Amino acid sequence: MLKKERAEPIIGHFVYNYWGYSGAANQAKKLAKELGGSDLVNVFFDSPSIGNKINFKVNRDTFNNAWVISLPSNLIFKSLAIIWFSLKYKVNIFHLHGFHRLAIFFAVLLRRKVFLKTTLLGKDDFCALSCSRINKYLISKVDINNSLTPEIEKINNKYYSGGMCVIPNGVDIFDTVFLDKENLAIIVGAVVPRKNPLQGIQHFKKGLAKLGYKLILAGPNQATIPEFDVDYYKSCVDEAINHDIVFVGNLDRNELIQLYKKAKIIIFLSDREGLPNVLIEALSFNVLPIVNPNDMLMQYVLGDALIKKISPLLSNGENMENAIESLVINGDAQERSYVFSMSMCAGLHKNAYLEVLKRDY
């Protein structure tokens, strides 16, 4: 019989592509950094998209002071690495940022608690996962599910009777309002059909382009990324011809921050999301959003008051230019980001960790 672990949380975060392009992994990194100021210990188990077949790598990330184990792709060696480092670091909670079958299996085997974060509507919500009997069994072994948004919570509630919470993604909060802006609109995210950049370009051409704005699309646009569709990408490029529209590819963190600081507008028309990091990050830099106002997720993220204020932007109304200037000066977008404070999110996570450790195995 394994001994019961000590009460302070030692978190094993399971992510995909820690060192690559992943919104869920980047959110996990920032959460670990915020939690690092408390008595929590953070260890990452990373499943890279391109990894070594049998060897693992261990690195210390100076950003959040966490240990990062890059797992091998071979199932046997990956399993051994999960067991070995879980025991070595005395991990007592497996925090899954997305659905990781193997992690839940070994959590049951090693008697670890499972905190599962649903990351993407239609992909890893419990309705989408429940088509598999194995997934149904593994879901039943989850101690707490963070459904991320009320919309996903309603779905997951139908397939799961365990502990549930709704903790949104978080962003850093700034005291200074960002006002030094250019006539610049941005679309941030992979250039793939689900993200709807083509529709975003078309909306830009109907309104902001006529006001002298430039549009920058920042995000992966190569065949190496999941969901990439070369024909769709060509359609986006063709749609941008003869307009001030630039595809800059994937940007590093500092480059993206500079883009947020300069932009007045972010166009975000994605079809399916969990809680989009790029949108709430843009809000924190006082970037006004153009979204689908009928989307339940957008209503949750932006709130009724901000959606009402940005309505001239959504319809390309006649007073759009004046509305943009007024909203930027007032800092309405940045004010909305305060409800997604990373310190608040980290506090909610810590409380959830402590609560789950009180329960019997």
Distance between the termini: 12 Å
Report the structural category: alpha/beta
The best one-word shape is globular
Structural Rg: 21 Å
Main β sheet profile: 8 strands, mixed
The percentage of residues in β strands lies in: 15-25%
Total strands: the figure is 13
The percentage helix is 40-55%
Mean of all residue-level pLDDT scores? 92
User: Total helix count?
Assistant: 15
Residue windows where pLDDT falls under 50 for at least 5 positions? none
What characteristics describe this protein?
alpha/beta; 8-stranded mixed sheet; 13 strands; globular
Topology summary:
Blueprint: E1 10-16, H1 23-35, E2 41-47, E3 57-61, E4 66-70, H2 75-88, E5 93-97, H3 101-110, E6 113-117, H4 126-129, H5 133-140, E7 144-146, H6 150-157, E8 163-165, E9 184-188, H7 197-206, E10 214-218, H8 230-240, E11 245-249, H9 253-262, E12 265-267, H10 277-284, E13 288-290, H11 296-309, H12 311-314, H13 320-330, H14 332-336, H15 342-358
Parallel strand pairs: 1-2, 1-5, 2-4, 5-6, 6-7, 7-8, 9-10, 9-12, 10-11, 12-13
Antiparallel strand pairs: 3-4
